[in-house]
Write a structure and sequence with these properties.
Blueprint: H1 4-28, E1 48-58, E2 83-91, E3 121-125, H2 127-131, E4 141-145, E5 148-157, E6 160-163, E7 169-182, E8 193-202, E9 208-217
């Protein structure tokens, strides 16, 4: 019989691998050039989930997000420290993809798809500071989404490096963040939480290819210290460790 640790590891690995493969395949097959919407009237659900995907591109001129960041300092995307990648909707936030009358997304052949393939916004991070070795807790990040924007700060987490076999490195890890500021239809998320699951690919040429799921909520996301499991319900026998 599999013990609890083996069972959880096998289940998590299989589910995550399936999700990553499905998402990458759907995005790779996208051919739409439709720009993301600039305004929406629907407030996102609590929580909602986003996917950050793509090569980070340095920017020298960015939009005014009207957000404050770490230590209450206004976010300035034009200070030379920022790079951007794209944001895709996963759950609880309106999609830029076409849907039928039942809300189902279709590909160009009329087949249903379960992953949005059109970006809805941009994710900004102080990549220059990250590459210079600045602590994550002092690096600003911001989401520019339809109907508003959000700034966040890292609270905990870290990367574990794995060689990709081609001269680059996969940086994998999970992170907890607090929402410093939010405006527009996201204003109620200020003071909330983000749980990131990240697989950042540092390519051999030094560029960074992002692949990160973000679980964003108005409430503190509960988690237990590593290796600590909550007690089982009274009617369930504990699993072997």
């Amino acid at each position: 019989m599999l013990n609890r640790r083996t069972w959880i590891s096998a289940l998590s690995s299989g589910v995550l691998a399936s999700l990553l493969t499905s998402t990458r395949r759907s995005i790779a097959q996208s051919t739409t050039a439709t720009p993301p919407p600039t305004t929406i009237n629907t407030v996102p659900t609590d929580p909602f989930v986003l996917l950050l995907k793509g090569i980070y591109e340095p920017i020298t001129s960015g939009p005014e997000l009207s957000l404050t960041g770490i230590n209450g300092i206004p976010i300035n995307l034009n200070d030379g420290s920022w790079s951007k990648t794209t944001i895709y909707p996963v759950f609880g936030i309106p999609s830029a993809d076409d849907v039928d009358q039942n809300g189902h997304k279709k590909d160009q052949d009329g087949n249903e798809i379960n992953v949005n393939t059109t970006p809805i916004g941009n994710f900004y991070a102080q990549v220059a500071a990250f590459e210079a070795g600045v602590a994550l807790s002092m690096i600003n990040i911001a989401y520019h989404l339809p109907g508003g924007a959000i700034s966040q700060q890292f609270l905990s987490g870290g990367f574990v490096p794995f060689p990709d076999g081609s001269g680059g490195t996969y940086l994998e890890g999970s992170f907890d963040l607090t929402i410093l500021d939010a405006n527009g239809i996201y204003k109620d998320f200020k003071g909330g939480h983000n749980n990131m699951v990240d697989r950042l690919h540092q390519l051999a040429d030094g560029s960074l290819d992002e692949f990160c799921f973000c679980h964003i909520s108005q409430y503190e996301y509960p988690y237990a210290p590593v290796g600590v499991f909550p007690p089982p319900p009274p009617n369930m026998a504990p699993m072997a460790m």
